[in-house]
Amino acid sequence: MPDWSYHPLKKLLLDRLSPKASREFIHKCISTIASISGGRSLIRFLGNMNPPQECQKYLEQTSFPSPIGLSGIIDPSLSGTNAFQELGLGFLEIGPIVLDKPRKQMEPVLENEHILLSNNFEKVPLKLAIKKLTSLDIRIPIFARIDAQVKRNEWDLIVQHLMPFVDFFIVTKEQMNFFLQKDISCSRSFFISLTVDEMHEDTLEIEKFHKQINVGGIVVTAPCRMKDSYWHEDADANKSLRRAVKHVKERYPDIVVITSGGVETPEDACSLMDSGADFIMLTNGYVKAGPGLPKRIHERLLFTENQPVLKQQWIWSFLFGLSILFGGLIALYFAFTSIILSYDESFIGLTKAKLVQINPLILSFMSHDRMALAGTMISAGILYIQLARHGIKDGMKWAKITFHSAAIIGFLGIFLFIGFGYFDWLHGLFWLVLLPIYYFSFKEGTKVTGTPSSSHEKNDRTWMLGLYGQLMFIILGFSIIIGGIVISTIGISNVFVSTDLRFLCMSPQMLDRVSDHLIPVIAHDRAGFGSSLISVGSLVLMLSLWGFRKGERWIWNTLALGALPAFIAGIGTHFYIGYTTPIHLFPVYFLVLLYMLGIVFSYPFLKTKN
Questions:
Q1: How far apart are CA 123 and CA 72, in angstroms?
Q2: How far is 370 from 121, CA to CA, in rounded Å?
Q3: What is residue 121's three-state secondary structure?
């Protein structure tokens, strides 16, 4: 669940539920999606959250896709474990683990936007942990935190049973002392969990543990503030953690330090990494900021590294977009002038003048489909050109995937043209001219593998408005695709909807009597227009899903400018021919509303200098 869907849902529904109910609703939903065939791919498509290769780290020969992980307090029921690895997280903590489920467990409560946890907060029984770890396909490292109140005779049992399924353990210093005294055999490393205060008090303890073979490092937990029988993270948790990390790293530079908590923004995470933290576990800040927080942290870390942008070849991709744009302008010219060409007349068996004599509305109707197709092609050309000039030129892999996915969809649409037995030779020739241009465009894109970075580091109002703008454009893209599928289906099946026939004042049987080749020509126009809409909708959708970042001015310019020709043609042509039935135009008006909301909401976020 990306931020653009999480925050609207959080405001409308989740904040009205108890913290546990909202947590389980979200986790079970995303885990269910991840469990079905193609579900993981859908999550990756919608969020594009996979950690970039540059963020990969190693610890004791264990590969971490990212140094950003998730604390066990976020998912004590392990209901979301199956999906978390698709949300950009590099590792997971489970626990605190207990032998048997405690009789008394208190749910978290929400107060003044703080999630308050009890000392009797939900814990993970050993059987549940083993059941989940054995049944799920988990591909990222797992840390198992053993509950501080576990008895000594139970501690050994928990460690031995979990050892085959986890990569590391997190224990208290008292539990580690017990382990060292008993000389228990264990092939996994232990991380000592310490609070900020304990780190300052027990420098000698850290030194003692640091020299032990089985100790992998320390976990520093954020300071907490108590309220009655509940607690929440201190407001200055990040600042306290930074001081603590610096304190230990100055004395033991090679010790591995993991922080837990104190992160609500990319800025918080980067400040901890700058202080020396090797890994970061997100806690309640993840709930507040949203599931997109790991992705935003990755992009901020890449921005900090200030890696030079390697410009890629983009000319052929630009020429492809320019060709689409030019083809749309030619189609628009014909739609405004001759409407049908000589080979259309030859196939139909009637001249333009004869059709006008029979029913002038026939040509008007054909003109409206061809104008709409022309406007859509012009919009597609603008989107392709912008993707080439900015995304592909700057080496962005997401831009390359967007470009070529939509182009391939557009090429496949040619098969819809012949759904009723009419092949438009001009369209066919146009695709033949485009094919070699696209081939070289595809070839030059093979080296485009870059990942985006961003300077955005706060959860401010501009960012939140940008999420709503992004949501509007995503709905717009989905809606255009659905509209294209519907129109294409109509074009290769019934051809007309009821409002079309009312406008023409003729039935399909009457049109067939005029010429049995007339409907195939109209069907070919409809199917071609629908195919073009699917391609453009894919461009809008993927641009919106993957391109929204602070200061990406070209994304706003592309969406704002690129949609205009399609909307102007789509609405203008209906008024031009007098086909203004409200129910017929309602879908277009809905799309225009989404477009206007999208450009207004996203303007401050996208147009702010990065």
A1: 9
A2: 64
A3: coil
**Structure tokens that stand for 298 in this block:** 């990755």
Query: CB–CB of 305/54 below 8 Å?
Result: yes
Higher pLDDT, 472 or 426: 472
The alpha-helical segments, DSSP class H, found in 315-454 are: 315-336, 342-348, 352-358, 360-386, 397-412, 425-444
For the whole model, what pTM was predicted?
0.90
Distance, CA of 39 to CA of 41 (rounded, Å): 5
**pLDDT greater than 80 at residue 381:** yes
User: C-alpha 395: how far from its chain's center?
Assistant: 19
Query: What is the C-alpha to C-alpha distance for residues 594 and 606, in angstroms, rounded to an integer?
Result: 17
SS (H, E, C) 241-263: HHHHHHHHHHHCCCCEEEEECCC
Q: How many C-beta atoms surround the C-beta of residue 580 within 10 A?
A: 11
Query: Among residues 360, 350, 323, 376, which one has the least CA distance to residue 526?
Result: 376
Token look-up 């050309």 returns 381
| Cα–Cα dist 89/91, whole Å | 6
Residues 6+ apart with CB under 8 A from 96: 72, 123, 124, 145, 146, 147, 148
- Strands of the sheet containing 230-233, edge to edge, are 109-111, 114-118, 230-233, 224-227
pLDDT of residue 406: 94
Q: Which letter does DSSP use for residue 14 in this model?
A: G
Minimum mean pLDDT range among 50-59, 218-227, 315-324, 578-587: 218-227
Give the tens place of pLDDT for each residue, 443-463: 998 888 888 888 888 888 999
Q: How many helices (H) and strands (E) does the chain have?
A: 25, 15
Check: CB of residue 598 under 8 Å from CB of residue 469.
Answer: yes
| Angle, CA of 167, 168 and 171, to the nearest 5° | 155
Least confident range from 9-13, 183-187, 401-405: namely 183-187
Torsion from C-alpha of 410, 415, 421, 425, nearest 10 degrees: 60
Spatial distance between the Cα atoms of 524 and 528, rounded to a whole number of angstroms: 6
Query: Is 60 exceeded by the pLDDT of residue 204?
Result: no
Q: Which of 184-198, 261-275, 364-378 comes out lowest in average pLDDT?
A: 184-198
- 8 Å CB contact between 288 and 264: yes
Neighbouring C-alpha atoms within 13 Å toward the C-beta of 222: 27
Report how far apart, in Å, the C-alpha atoms of 79 and of each of 5, 107, 173, 274, 608 are.
20, 16, 29, 33, 39
Mean pLDDT of 321-333: 93
Using CB atoms within 10 A of its CB, is residue 119 exposed (0-12), middle (13-18) or buried (19+)? exposed
Q: How many CB atoms lie within 10 A of CB 529?
A: 27
Amino acid at 390: H
| Cα 336 to Cα 519: distance, rounded to the nearest angstrom | 21
Q: Is the distance from CB of 224 to CB of 233 less than 8 angstroms?
A: yes
Residues 101-117: pLDDT tens digits? 776 677 777 776 667 77
pLDDT in tens, 211-253: 677 788 899 998 888 777 777 788 888 999 999 999 888 888 8
| Residue type for position 59 | L
Q: Which structure tokens are listed for 353? A: 């003048």
Exposed, middle or buried: residue 229 (CB in 10 Å: 0-12, 13-18, 19+)? exposed
Q: Convert the pLDDT of each residue in 21-38 to its tens digit.
A: 888 888 888 888 888 888
What ranges in 148-265 are assigned the alpha helix state H?
152-162, 173-182, 196-201, 203-210, 237-251
